Amino acid sequence: MDNRPIGVFDSGLGGLTAVRELRRILPGEDIVFFGDTGRVPYGSRSPHIIKEYATQCMDFLEKQDVKMILVACGTVSSVLGEEMKKRTVPCMGVLESTVKAAVSATKNKNIGLIATAATVASGSYEKLTAKLLPEAKFTGKACPLFVPLVENGYFAAGCEVTRLVAKDYLSAFEGKDIDTLILGCTHYPLLYNLIDSVTEHKLNLIDSGKEAALGAKALLEERDMLSGTRKIGGMKFFVTDKEEGFAKLGKEFLGEELSDVTRLEIEEL
Ligand code: DGL
Fold it and tell me: Cβ(147) to ligand 1 under 6 A?
């Protein structure tokens, strides 16, 4: 048993998709969330910059005495890979649980991925899919406009601007006969209903935020590190840009007030 909080890290607010699921499946856990909102998006940056930023943020989370770090960011998970295992607390990304879910959902073994440019370029999802299901056919598509749209609140299913962008991006899968689409960036589950509607409810959509939270639960169970309390866990949020916008969108998304949001200066990290 371990009553310390779970640390969740994302480059922005997308990691709240994992927090939402953690609140549902592990309501007794305290959560410390770090969103590097002042430097998002990571997905269009080079691997060495992503590593540098991510290391600063995770060092900060470790100083908050978290019992594990869930890297709820497809880009950081893809770029850091095995390096996440070198931290002093258990640290896991989104890839493994997400790819496992995709591999068990597909019937025709044609899997698609939408993610940031850095994630698609890393080939991380493709390599892991090939390892778990060697016969799979895999198509990846970078969708860089999705992150700024989500960060600015344009994620409702009826949002015309985002629908147009989604139609354009998803046309990359025409003729590929995919039956399963990985939402490989934790911002994209906020677009779940919109993408489901644009793809006419025909695809298994794999939510990387949700799958990552399930993976974190499994890790804590395996190591006997779940919290022993019965009360509802608390949440603390740290961001590197204005608190208000984050708290407003976060509330809309989590359905809970984000009462404890602190802005950090990047130079202090
Ligand atoms: N959180 C990132 C991811 O899941 C998307 C945002 C970014 O590009 O930083 O890939």
Answer: yes
Options 57, 73, 91, 143, the catalytic residue: 73
CA of 253 to the centre of ligand 1 (A): 17
Give the percent of the chain with pLDDT over 90: 92
Give the closest residue (by CA) to ligand 1 atom 7.
Answer: 41
Give the per-residue pLDDT at 252: 81
| Dist. CA 29 → ligand 1 center (Å) | 24
pLDDT at 15 over 90: yes
* Structure token digits, residue 235: 């949440």
The pLDDT tens digits of the residues spanning 158-207 come to 999 999 999 999 999 999 999 999 999 999 999 999 999 999 999 999 99
- Give me the pLDDT at residue 127, please: 97
Q: Residue 115: what are its φ and ψ, rounded to 5°? A: -165, -175
